[in-house]
Amino acid sequence: MSDNLKQEKEKLSDAPMEIQDILKKYKELELPEYNYRSDNYVLLGVWRELGAVKLFEALTLMSKSEFVKNNMSINSIFKIENLKKALNRNFKDKEKKSNEKKEPKKKFVRPVYEDSTGNFIKELLNKIAKEG
Known about the structure:
By secondary structure, the protein is mostly helical. The protein has helices at residues 3-14, 17-28, 40-63, 66-71, 74-77, 80-87, 118-131. It contains seven helices and no strands. Helix 2 (17-28) runs parallel beside helix 3 and helix 3 (40-63) packs parallel to helix 6. The radius of gyration is 31 Å and the shape is rod-shaped. The model has no long low-confidence stretch (mean pLDDT 83).
């Protein structure tokens, strides 16, 4: 085990319980590995703003996204804006289109209207022509 990881583990045991819980959940969800975790104030800030339930829900949703797993660091994941995006389902993976059959697009059918003004206009024009 490298010295950095030993130091991180030692620091973690000294960290507040909330931070230990957050990082435990982070590891359980198999989110991206890290050498250095986010600062305590960042983790406690999102804990205070979202609460434990919403924070863990956001992390769970993020763990289901290949984009998050492959492209985001621990610091990006714990940005409050990204956690809120996760709660709004913005990190949901796109569904595979090739395997799924979609309903065919409905063709537009032009409505047919009864010609109720044609005769009226003809009569009106004939009347004007006779008077003029």
